[in-house]
Amino acid sequence: MTEENSKWLVVVNPKASVGKSGKDWPLIKQTLVNEGIEFDDILTEYPRHAIEIVRNAIVEKGYRKFISVGGDGTNNEVVNGIFTQDLVPTNEITMATVPIGTGNDWSRTFGFPLDYQQVAKIIKEGHTFMHDIGKVTYYNDGDPQVRYFLNAAGTGLDEAVCQTTNALKQQGKGGAARYMVSVAKCLFKFDCVHIRLEVDDQRVFDDEILSLSVGNCRFNGGGMMMMPEAIPNDGLFDITVIRKVGIAKFAANISNIYDGSFTKKMKEVIQFHGRKIRITSVPPHSIKVETEGETLTNSPFDFEMLQQSINMVVPETHQFGS
């Protein structure tokens, strides 16, 4: 086995938040240096590059600590690099983040500040939380594929908004305002989809939906509190289903979706909890799932919980048990 490297490896996605990550990286780098954090750094050059970087860094260079600089998508790639290697148990690896992206949904659950100096202090303090990881198996052209996620996944309107937002990012357009435009556009043209949902081997839902969110944490879709009761280390997925609902009613509840109260105020909302989930579309292969900005095809989608399987650096003041 390669000798363990005691330094952090900082993985920077310079395109996160429409280039803000790359622009701010010199400042972030100096802030980490000022805190006395020992690290090496590398910038990603293309989609999924961080997966390759992290996997190779563990196997070939002995790194066990990683800092993700970017958004939820960058976090997702770093996680997939960690979980697609089998040399080192994942619970022996530590991951930290510097949130910069459009949504920052994972960091919202733990109350991360957006000030770089404060984040650097959190990393230096090194308070860790044993975090659950979601694993989803899907069938791309009939071949089983696997993706891991730290925060959340979704289908229906969630996935449609993800695709539209990604297209805008490729055009150099991003930010919270653009995201809300994506939501509005998708809402008016989106057709509800029929799914069958199984939780822990029991069919619990078989009908049309507007959206379905599966999460370890509370936020998805750029600050929407889709899973307001989620606990990131309890070994359970939180599942929120919004049945077919009229555009006017959904729009009237937007503020309730951002504060999580929609789960109690909308009769079209159903919630479930479980360790194992299967989502099947009707007809087959008619839906896609997004995991932190990555679109996956095709159904069925099988979710499995990997409980407390990675050490995440979080603020010591977070509200969950260690």
How is the topology of this model organized?
Elements: E1 5-12, H1 20-34, E2 39-43, H2 49-61, E3 63-70, H3 72-83, E4 94-99, H4 105-109, H5 116-125, E5 128-140, E6 143-149, E7 152-156, H6 157-170, H7 176-189, E8 193-199, E9 202-215, E10 237-243, H8 247-252, H9 254-259, H10 262-265, E11 269-274, E12 276-282, E13 289-291, E14 294-296, E15 301-313
Parallel strand pairs: 1-2, 1-3, 3-4, 4-15
Antiparallel strand pairs: 5-6, 5-15, 7-9, 7-13, 8-9, 8-12, 9-10, 10-11, 12-15, 13-14
Question: Key features?
Answer:
322 residues; 15-stranded mixed beta sheet
Description:
- This protein is α+β, with helices and mostly antiparallel strands and 322 residues long.
- The chain is built from ten helices and 15 strands.
- It has helices spanning 20-34, 49-61, 72-83, 105-109, 116-125, 157-170, 176-189, 247-252, 254-259, 262-265; strands spanning 5-12, 39-43, 63-70, 94-99, 128-140, 143-149, 152-156, 193-199, 202-215, 237-243, 269-274, 276-282, 289-291, 294-296, 301-313.
- It has a 15-stranded mixed sheet that branches.
- Strand 1, helix 1 and strand 2 (39-43) form a beta-alpha-beta unit.
- Helix 1 packs across helix 5 (116-125) and helix 6 (157-170) crosses helix 7.
- The protein starts with a strand and ends in a 9-residue tail after the last strand.
- The model has no long low-confidence stretch (mean pLDDT 90).
